[in-house]
Amino acid sequence: MADAIKVANVGDIEDEEALIVEADDTGLDKAIAVFRVGEEYFAIDDMCTHAVASLGDGYTDGDIVECPIHAAKFSMQTGEALTLPATKPVCTHQVEVRGDEIWLLPGVPVPGAILS
Ligand code: FES
Fold it and tell me: Which of 92, 111, 95 is nearest to 103 (CA)?
């Protein structure tokens, strides 16, 4: 687990878009994608578990993101791989809204997440 980091202010991330926090900044040696869905925020590993693709560059449908390469779908809430060709979940990370700031807790899984 790494220290909590401020990644954005409320309003910086467009609805159904993601901010990719680069590996150098997460403290975990891996990038994390922070998604906004309405007024909620979800964070998962940016790297797809099937091959090399950025889920932060994927297509969103509510709290589901579709990998831009082979179209596997993942739950942003639990990290579960919902469709093939991915079979392994992605790690989730907690996000907190503190006032008008968005903070990421790298390595702190969301309660109820499917652990990879
Ligand atoms: S790289 Fe994501 S589904 Fe293949």
Answer: 95
